[in-house]
User: Fold this.
Amino acid sequence: MEILDKKRRVFVLGGGISKFAAEREDGSMRDWINEAVLEALEDSGTKVQDIEHSTTSYFSDHFDKQLKAGAIFHDNIGMCPKPNVRVEGGGGTGGLAIRNAYAYIMSGLCDSMVVFGSENMGRQVPSDVAQQFIALASDTDWEVQVAGFYIAYYAIMMVTHMEQYGTKEEQFAMVSVKNHRNAMYNPKSHYPMDITIDDVLKSKMITYPYKKLDCSLLSDGAASLIFATEDWAKKNCSTWEKKPTIELTGTGCGTDFMRMADRPHPYPGVTHFRGKRTAAEQAYPMAGIKNPLEDFDCFEVHDAYSGAELVSYEDLGFCKEGESGKLMEKGVFNVGGELPTNTSGGLMGFGHPVGATGVAQGVEVLRQLRQEADPGRQVELNSKRGGMDSHGGTGTFCALNIFERRD
Amino acid sequence: MGLELISNLMNVFTAEDPMPFEHPDGDPWADFREGMRIEWKMDFTYKHVLGKYSKFFIELTNHKFLATECPGCGKVWAVPRPLCADCLTITKWKELPGTGTLHSFSVSEFVPSFMKVEVPYVLALVKMDGADTLFTHQLRNYGDSTDAVKTGMSVKVAYATEPVAHPMLLMHFEPV
Assistant:
């Protein structure tokens, strides 16, 4: 990898979120994207007429029954006849869409990009049909028939982690407590809750060791981010140098075999997210991250399940393999700790409209670095860097992006 | 006749502003809050072709468990694939004994209803004898309690004796 024009840089001008909820019966994806983009335009002080390119971020065609939905989003927000491209990678879609903005701007194809992501997570069909749609994201010939539900695979990952490192249910229950509590200070969140470790441990067991309160949500909603070069921002962004300057400084992406059964041993085995380590190895040098625990002020993690957040800490380099549980016990990842994670509430508290999730977590990092977040979840700034990661499948697609405040 | 003209109408309703806290001056979309829910039915049957690995399923009916072996690097893929992902050589079929060791498993108290199975449902990842990668399938007939299921235990492929709804269900695992 080589950055051809070291003077060319990508800035994050603003973001917007259309509320995450179990069911948004006030419209569909096209409506929520309008709301999120309008908020991002206002937040950034930019006009859609001046933005040159858009990126569509959504995962499933099945829930909204609309193929090529990006065409609708792009035309609804007034972007025609300007260019658009869609990005998709399961749960990794949002993070990949942010990475896409970096790539298009750095290549010179455009100086400005609006990313919009949304998902309708299927309350319009019976819950087991929704499960069946999501199951189609695992191998439909080899996995859906024997376990067409993701929690069965994630549970295997956690069981092996518990056996190998002694990770305890109480430790990942703490992740659930943290994320649901952080969501209480995020007015756009789906499932804010003040719960205890005991509440999590006593919630209904679905697949050992994961109980209902260990699981992420199915949410409706949308999110948007606007990126541009400095020159474009100076001409077109009325908040430039009025709001804190936030730069997209690093991006990385990794993948792994679709089927856990095919992955090599001992690493990642059926325990770790190899794609996250790959993504971090790319993004961290770009952004000057040497010791993630010290060098990030906040990090949004893809908590598909509470335990998956702990394992992600290890693959993202926050600690050594097996140590995440102990660090969680010490409060390292709570607001006020060394590296607050999922201050937005994450997928468990904020919500998970798949195509919107990663983009929304990027908006959270933006808010944190600008110190615009609700005081109940605002972090202290030291290094002025924040990161986010998104993953799809059981680590099939992993994307990681880093923002840094420059003033 | 009014709304009765819509045969697939479920109901009309008024949606609320989901973000009133963002709109102190009033709901900007106030004009567009009337909602209509309709029934939209879709019914699909695919004529799905299983890939170049269809022979795996055919041989399950002959009570044989096949894997694919790479003539280039020697790797044996337990879930068959016609192209070795490590060295991109076209693979060859290899019959395995069908025995293996339980590498890991999960126990589900709930499964989606499209899976016609009983709970608790045990999903097993098995290190097959003669293969380098794992194979994923249900573990059955482990006795009265899932406490009997332990990683490292010996398991074997068991074959269907009754018609199944999908070729993947022609086999499952059982303890040896």
In short: The helical segments of chain B are 54-60. The beta strands of chain B are 9-14, 34-38, 65-69, 76-77, 92-96, 99-108, 121-128, 134-139, 154-159, 171-175. Chain B has a mean pLDDT of 96. Chain B touches chain A through 48 residues (CB under 8 Å).
